[in-house]
Design brief:
mainly alpha, 6 helices, about 160 residues
């Protein structure tokens, strides 16, 4: 879902620039990449694996199209539109998500009450891991938010 949303956000950046051909061609390229991966997946997998492979193909095709739009926007604007903190934020989010998933798989709560408790506990845990990871990577969220609120001036 994230690559799909990123593609449409980036396409709108092109529309703001008065250009619709680049996102259209990127969308066509994404469709072709997706079809090729889906054909390979359908021919080499079966049952549930095919459904998972189709989902991966969809995501890969939109990651490709989003990358094309980012690079072409860079060429058009002369600057990168990717935020400088993106890599660190993605790293922290990935670690937090994988750790939480692993803990859920180890726990495997049964029944609605235990699943609800697991949800509450794991949401708190993933938030702590994510924020802790950001701090370890040198990202200070409260300072960045207050900096943005004052218009970038220091107090």
């Amino acid at each position: 879902l994230l690559p799909y949303g990123a593609f449409f956000l980036l396409a709108r950046a092109w529309y703001v620039l008065g250009e619709s051909k680049v996102p259209a061609f990127a969308g066509i390229a994404a469709a072709l990449v997706g079809v090729v991966i889906m054909l390979v997946a359908a021919a080499t997998s079966s049952s549930t694996a095919t459904v998972a492979a189709l989902g991966v193909a969809h995501s890969v095709s939109f990651v490709f199209a989003s990358a094309v739009l980012v690079v072409t926007l860079h060429r058009r604007l002369g600057t990168w539109i990717v935020p400088s903190l993106l890599g660190r934020v993605m790293c922290s989010a990935t670690v937090a998500g994988l750790a939480t998933w692993a803990l859920y798989e180890l726990w495997l709560p049964q029944g609605r009450v235990l699943v609800a408790l697991a949800l509450v506990a794991l949401v708190a845990l993933v938030t702590g891991i994510y924020v802790g990871g950001l701090r370890l990577l040198g990202v200070s969220v409260p300072r960045r938010l207050s900096h943005m609120a004052t218009g970038g001036t220091s107090a």
